[in-house]
Each structure stands twice: as structure tokens, then as C-alpha cells.
Amino acid sequence: MVVPSPNPIRSEKLQPIQLPVIDLSAERSEVSKLIVKACEEYGFFMVVNHGVAQHTIAQMEEQGLHFFTKPLSEKQKAGTSTPFGYGCKNIGFNGDIGEVEYLLFDTNPLSISQRSTTISNDPQQFSSAVSGYIDAVKALACEILDLMAEGLWVHDSSVFSRMIRDVESDALFRLNHYPPILCKEKDSHSHSHRDTSASSFHGHSSNKVGFGEHTDPQILTILRSNDVGGLQISLANGVWVAVPPDPTAFCVNVGDVLQAMTNGRFVSVRHRALTNSYKSRLSMAYFGAPPLRAWVTAPSELVTTHSPMQYRPFTWGEYKKASYSLRLGDSRLELFRKHG
User: 281 catalytic, yes or no?
Assistant: First the structure.
């Protein structure tokens, strides 16, 4: 079991990785092939020409940064994250911690509107920014999931996306803020020469775990971050690699549910986020999830004699309950693997 630690990352030498960058405006059948290949090989990829308006992104970032610059006493008025609301350092309910503060929402517009009254002095503006952003990235997630189904030659191309289109979808939206951890070591260089890119994360002993090693339990994650590095993914050989930030793109990653629904063809990859020594990082993550009652199982096209069903059918509610009972770094999907 790997549990996130606030201790500095000292011993690992990390190399940046260039994830596949997929242009969603290209020819559809080619895009679907590239997405499938990326999901099988990396579990992560970047998308450009994604159709999400820049002003929608900018408004959400502005609102998020404005909230996180408030004094702690003001931020705490947003309510303790149980699970929704404001959280600081504590991640989940089982003792995991990290150098992060966050706002967590369900994606119901009424719930967002009500919670905004405790978050912003202009709750209508905040609520509008959050709901507008969620609508845009949800549409993007659905389009990507349809392209995945087409690339897998599944007859019903909405088999994945309809789970998050459902009005009872258990999707989440999370704003993570990783404050800078100022380097305490003597540094003869001026601040203007300090590197805040992803590749710099193997060079400073003061970088700490912001959000510990884990996989996302849901179907699909759509992640947007500012121009500060911090995201790292674990390759099949256990080596951690840094993902350079790209403010022009969205980062997309496979969740546990999608790994199960593709019968193991797509991989839900372990990842983590580190703090930066001198600059704060803001990330915005949409987690597309099924309704609690929805059954998770692979379509018949993906189950063959040569590729028998790897996971027993389960409901999202059952899987979510298992996830909440475990530590952040624990493997959940293995509990649902078929044996014999």
C-alpha cells in the first residue's frame, strides 16, 4: 500500500514524458484510432481543438484563484469537505494527507448554486462559472467516450457516454490548489532564474507530495491545469515520469470503471501531483461517473474466447463504497477481478 506523504521527494530521478497529443478536429475515424492506442499504451493523453471556449476556462480559473487567495477563515466558510465543500491537506476519510487545498462539488446545478453562497461574495457569478465549465467539459468527455467506443468497434457507440449523460450521473468536479513550498535551502541563484516547468521536479529536494499516488475510480477524467508542472504518471515498469504542463490542452485519463468496461484493454494508470517550490499550481478536474445504480460490465464485443471477461459485473455504488473504504494508494479494481 502506498500512502501519500508530506515528506520531500528526494531519491527519484524523473524524466518528462510527451503524452500523445490528439487533435479532435482531425478526421473522425483517425481520431478514434489514436485515442484507443493512447488509452491502451498510456492511459493518458492530451487533446487540442477540443471545443471548450477559452473564456469558459478563464472564468473558472479566475473564480478558483480568487477563492484560494482568501484567508483560511474565509475559505472554511465553504464547509468541511464531507465530501463536498472545502478541504485542506486531508484527502478522503482514511488518513491520507497532501500539500493541497481544494473545493469539491457534485455536478448538480442546484447544489452548485446553493454551495456558491458560502464560497463567493458574488455567488451567481461563481455558480455560473462552475456550471458553465462543467457543461463544457462534460460535453467533451461524452464526445471522447463516443470516439473510444467507435475505435473499439462497439456497436452501441453511446455505451460509455450515456452513463455520464444520465441525469443521475455521480460525476464530480474538483478544484485543486497546490500552494508553493518555498525552498529553505540556501540558493545563490536569483528567483528570476528558477524553473517552474515539469522537468524541474526532479531537481529540488523541497518538492512535496500534493496529491498522493492513486488511480481515478470513475470512468474518465478531464483535467486542466495552469502552466505550472506537477502531474506525474507511473509507467508499467514503475518509473515515475513528469507530464509537462500545457495550458492550451486538456489532459484526459482512463478511470477504473473504463478499464473494467473495456475488459482491461484500456489502462487506469497510477498518478500523483507534486507541489512546486516557488509557484502555485491550480488544477480543475471533471470526473465522469455513472449513476450509483448503474451496472458496470464490458460490452459483448469486447469479451471473446481469447479475451474472457476479466471483472465481475458490479454497480458503481458498490465500487464507490469499496473505494471510500480504502486508502488513496490502494488497488481497488483487483477486488472485482474474476478468478478461475
Answer: yes
